[in-house]
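Hi L.,

You mentioned the student needs an example of a multi-chain input paired with its predicted structure. This one should do, with 622 residues in total across all chains.
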Amino acid sequence: MTVHSAAPISPDPPAPQPAKTSGLKFVVDRVLRIRELSVLVVDIVLIIYFGVANPAFFTLSNIQNISDFFSAAALIAVGEVFLLVCGEIDLSAGMTFALVPVVMVTLNGDGMQLWLAMLIGLLVAAVIGLFNGLVTQYLKLPSFITTLGTLYLLHGISLTLAGSTPLPAPQEGIIPRIFGVWQWSELTWTVLMVLVMQVVLTQTRWGAHTVASGANMIGASESGIKVRQIKIRAFVLTAVLSGLAGILDGTNIAKSFDPNAGGNNLMFTAVAAAVIGGTALLGGSGTVVGAALGALLLAVLQDGFNIQGISATTFVIVEGLAILLAMTLNIYFTRFRARAKVG
Amino acid sequence: MTVNVGVDEPTAGSASRAPVIEARNISKSFGAVTALRDISLQVGQGEVLGLIGDNGAGKSTLIKILTGFQQPTHGQILLDGEPVTLSNVADARAQGIETVFQDLALIDTLPVYLNLHLNKEPRFGPFLRKKLMQENSRRYLDDIGIQIGSVNDDVASLSGGQRQAIAVARSVYSHARILLLDEPLAAMGAKEGGIILDLISMLRERGEVSIILIGHNYTQVLDVCDRVNLLQHGEITLNKRTSETSVEELLDLVSKEYRRGGKLAGNRGQLLNEARDGR
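Structure written out for the whole complex:
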């Protein structure tokens, strides 16, 4: 997965190698490339379909709608990709999404400068990630269990802090404009984070060690890679991106922060986007761009169904089928790779 | 290059020097299980020490302690006569200790060139220097004489021998002054195994790297090592120059172990007889 964005294979002379393994390898490489590409193809097909079926699809306001559906899920998916690649998951991301803006406006309401309140909100997110990471790595709880616990914990804290009602999101000044009031700011942040973290995953040591920690935890630590640190970092990344998404989303869309916003549905959409995009559930490989394409797929589907007047319940059925199909392909390709190893 | 069995050049003169690496009275217990009991061994400058013994004798545990992956329950490790604490693998690597683990520690989903540079990746700022790694990898593998389709292939697509060669190359093409090789030939055919043995012999001739080689094939061990230690049930029961021992002696020592098991059998097997007879 990490290979294909590499620089074109340098002075490697095209020495005719015994074709058996490299021929099979070539096929595997191709298939893997298509796996990322296939989501893009599906995206394009869907966009063309809805565009043709309904002239309202390509209007500015509808594109804004798609961007709204897309951004928060994609932003959280970036973090989940890093977690899935190193063999973990964060179920509490949707609740971090809800809590961080509540913390921010609460502090702001108590008279703190907005920028400082936001910084502290994101710091709280980092602490949540650190907590998830430390518990999974040092108390050796599976992340599924740990983050299931923090999910309820954070939800409770959000409700308590906000008094169970939505809080108005600040709309005045430069900070809100950068973080949500300008209508494309949420999308801009998302695309920026997707590109940066794709580069981090494929072009840096952090990325390589994330893959190593997920693919072979013992081997990675035998090589001196600090596996726990890598995993804790992924938890912190996910939590901070979730918090950022919460601030952007509430400021941009509802103009308020609902302690019941986002929540588990959003988190599952993000995980689904990652898996549809081709990230292995069992760790060791993944792609941030793929996850963003997966999020786009779900956003276009949801929006397209909306404007076609198809009920939201049908969308949920389609979403379920899409996830099942993507996971089947995902696992099939993992097995295919394992078989290729023997060949 | 020829391997002169029995000519012990490098160690003879270094009697006055402290051993490059020394384990002193190392013990290791996992709960109620004692894996190592008061082990002491030394390797001199440029010396190749063969470590042999049955499965479960504690060889791999010893290697893991010497490379900082596990901590001894008791005992001390000394490098050049100085006591050191190797609290992790990075620590040991900083001291010049490189290891080929029995499980090879390869990352299946990363390409060959990244595996060859795992956790010592050359970088430009935060970015991996992939081109440099690819070129290096190609050169190392050509130099060893192992054929691999492309250094961009994921390791998952390689054969057992190729994988092992990559694990060995990773530690050999470094500035390590101490190499720990845990069964570097286990998954290899005769030809590939020969390639790795040649590599060890070349290093031995250079005389600057001290090596501990764990092996199962006594002929190979006697061929490439200066000295051999036999590890049995957590204790070292033989420590001889390879010139002073033979495959026969080693086999004899090891087989005594299981023959004694046979004699001590007592009335074991009675039920077996009954069960078989009753049919």
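You could point out the following to them. DSSP finds ten helices and twelve strands in chain B. Chain B touches chain A at residues 69, 88-90, 93, 99, 101, 103-111, 114, 118-119, 121, 123, 126-128, 130-131, 134-135, 138, 147, 149-154, 156-159 (CB under 8 Å).

Best wishes,
N.
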